[in-house]
Recover the amino acids of this structure.
């Protein structure tokens, strides 16, 4: 009975749950009561559910509104459109961005932590899909899982730099997805590339634009790091410090004053 039920559930949904669980456990382990990590961890399950709901039940209404509204609106419950995943990804991204905004933790560090969580989730996500699929998709998903492991190791080792420039990790991940996507034939092609490949290219291009803006502004390669009273690691950026101090505020050093007394 259970086996029959699992057969009816799309493998992508199961892979999402497995990957989301892996990301949640990882973020809970490394979080150490950090508000940014906790905010992302608490929304992992919501991201998975929002993706499933919008890709399955809303995508058909968006891409094909006339047939669903004219014939039977419940017909969209029977299956999602070919590009339903795009609606699911967009909805999940907006849900996460809104949640981080309301939690007042939206920033570069939030993007870096989200990228790191995505890497660990992708390891389990693609590993499960590699098991349940056949070649050439098995090879594609296997290489993606291995690549995500390497990117996670790189992210942990270069965490200080990637906190300052999270777009680098996102660009590397999208490049991994794009390179491995050529291993399997895509039936839907739009101007040479598939819709998924265009998405990968778009994220890479956006990351390069952000990198260029950061170079023009002269942002540091790594943030200054200090320990709080609770022993948590926090990162301060020079531009954020200047914004807080302001042009009319003066930072007074009381060290010499204390020594004089």
């Amino acid at each position: 009975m259970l086996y029959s039920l699992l057969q009816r559930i799309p493998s992508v949904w199961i892979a999402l749950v497995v990957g989301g669980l892996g990301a949640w456990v990882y973020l809970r382990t490394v979080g150490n009561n950090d508000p940014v990590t906790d905010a992302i961890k608490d929304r992992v399950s919501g991201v998975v559910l929002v993706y499933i709901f919008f890709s399955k039940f809303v995508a058909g209404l968006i891409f094909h509104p006339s047939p669903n509204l004219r014939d039977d609106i419940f017909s969209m419950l029977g299956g999602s459109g070919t590009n339903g995943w795009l609606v699911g990804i967009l909805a999940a991204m907006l849900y996460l961005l809104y949640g981080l905004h309301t939690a007042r933790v939206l920033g570069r560090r939030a993007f870096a932590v989200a990228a790191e969580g995505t890497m660990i989730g992708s390891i389990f996500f693609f590993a499960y899909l590699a098991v349940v699929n056949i070649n050439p998709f098995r090879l594609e998903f296997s290489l993606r899982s291995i690549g995500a492991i390497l990117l996670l190791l790189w992210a942990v080792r270069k965490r200080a730099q990637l906190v300052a420039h999270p777009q680098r990790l996102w660009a590397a991940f999208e490049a991994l997805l794009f390179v491995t996507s050529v291993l399997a034939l895509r039936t839907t092609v739009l101007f040479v590339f598939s819709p998924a490949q265009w998405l990968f290219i778009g994220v890479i291009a956006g990351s390069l634009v952000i990198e260029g803006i950061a170079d023009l502004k002269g942002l540091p390669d790594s943030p200054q790091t200090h320990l709080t009273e609770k022993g948590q690691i926090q990162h301060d950026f020079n531009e954020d410090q200047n914004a807080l101090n302001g042009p009319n505020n003066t930072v007074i050093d009381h060290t010499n004053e204390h020594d004089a007394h």
In short: DSSP finds 13 helices and two strands in the chain. The first strand starts at residue 224 and ends at 227. The beta strands are 224-227, 233-236.
